[in-house]
Amino acid sequence: MGHSHARDNHAALHAGFGWQVPASFNIAQVCCTRWAQGPDARTRIAVRAHGQGAGSDTLSYAQLQQRANRLSNLLAALGVRRGDRVAIVLPQRLETAVAYMAVFQMGAVAMPLSMLFGPEALQYRLHDSEAAVAICDESSVASLLSVRQDCPALRTLVGLGAAALRADLDFEVGLAAQEAAFTPVRTRAEDPAVLIYTSGTTGAPKGALVPHRALIGNLPGFVCSQNWFGFDPEGEAGAGESEAVFWSPADWAWTGGLMDALLPTLYFGRPIIACSARFSPELAFTLMQQHGVTHTFLFPTALKAMMKAFPRPRAQFRLRLAAIMSAGEAVGDAVYAYCRDELGVIVNEMFGQTEINYIVGNCAMNHGPSRVGWPARPGSMGRPYPGHRVAVIDDDGNECPPGVPGDVALHRLDVHGNPDPIFFLGYWKRDDATAAKFTGDWCRTGDLAVRDADGYLWYQGRADDVFKAAGYRIGPGEIENCLVKHPAVANAAVVPKPDPERGALVKAYVVLAPQAQTEREGAPDRAAWDERLIAQLQSHVRGQLAPYEYPKDIEFIDQLPMTTTGKVQRRVLRLQEEERARARQSA
User: Fold this and answer.
1) I need a labelling partner for 322 at 20 to 30 A (CA). Which of 69, 177, 229, 280 fits?
2) Domain covering 465-586, topology
């Protein structure tokens, strides 16, 4: 499949780009206050809630600022000071945006926690961070109460909605008692703003401390991956107004939802749609149609589900999509073709992680001739975004030549020798882990890729997801992508199955597409049905990839283990296979 035919401006964009990072900088000031001071502050919408009743479904920038001021005053009255951690345990809702702005403008540190976390996960993060206050709603209050005695630094629970009666303080009552004016703390760009805990493959989660300046570091990638986010790339600097409307199902408690969706949208003074309902393809299309969504970030797993459920979406929905960014897993050419042909948008893949976010990706500009952008290549992670010096390095920190796999890494300095503002400050109370993240001035991601002669990176998987089978090196992504192209497959994950002779066999866990699942449930002889489809899938992969890559074992599963950010947890399946192998040996 050919790549998109956009003009290649990548080299020119890199050469002409330079960072402008002021000494004093605060996320709340650029994402809220400056818009709240504008003449249209009362009519310019910041957040619109999907599925809420009339009158309670929007928050203007003026309202966002006023409510943030009241919450800042409330938190100050509760003893929160500059640098203190405030846990925000909320789904996508209006008050979540208020909480972030309130914490940022105080100079305190926002600690987002997913409402999907169980008690153990919450307890570890609250205790380790020594959070002073937690803001929650009914989705998380019970779990918070159950671990509170193990978190001595946690002084106050502030509850929203149904959680207000179980918490120490009612959010709305507390805000009503405070002044609507607040004098913000003057923060340096280098000051900490967010503490996000990242889950590694081994050991306890580590808290990545992210500074205010990291938002600046995010912006080139955001604008590029969103096809200039509704601004005219041909216009004069500062000219024209974007009409972008943004939505993503990514939880605002994670880097993808916070730094790739909520904050950059507010930075540009545009509305973002908040929706806490469980994701489904129908919800996604209905929401985008209702709110006129123009720009979105959708995980590959979401796009795969949408592709299977609505193969011809424009026949049923009126869409205004101008850009789709996707990250978390490789998109694959089946989803790439679906976005291009059925949604009319060239999907821009993006790669980054909490510590160094939004560093690689595409800016296809949907084929159009433009002074910006570069062609996307199906299956490629893309190229380094302007301002970021990215390379594939070996174990010693040397750059790998084209075609040789290595660790994707980011240099502390950009191509002009200036500091890159995207970098995290370090891991919370873990100087050893921070040091281990670096080889000299290179920050390692732990993700493997190959760079081609044109500078495009091709994802090979996490260093801990790649395995050897019969002496061959296996990257799961290519096999999973091939399986998903089969009409019976909705999603797939490939892991090693321990084998005494060959070390490991290629095993695929497969989630069936709805129609195939219905057929399977109605089959008079399910074992025979399974056997036929397994043979078809093996033949399908064998015909597309190398003979050693086809899955020798296939197991059907209702759903894959996923992180709350939409990434497949192959490690869970790999450990399951290792446990089964031990059981077979002892039997």
Assistant:
1) 280
2) GMP Synthetase; Chain A, domain 3 (3.30.300)
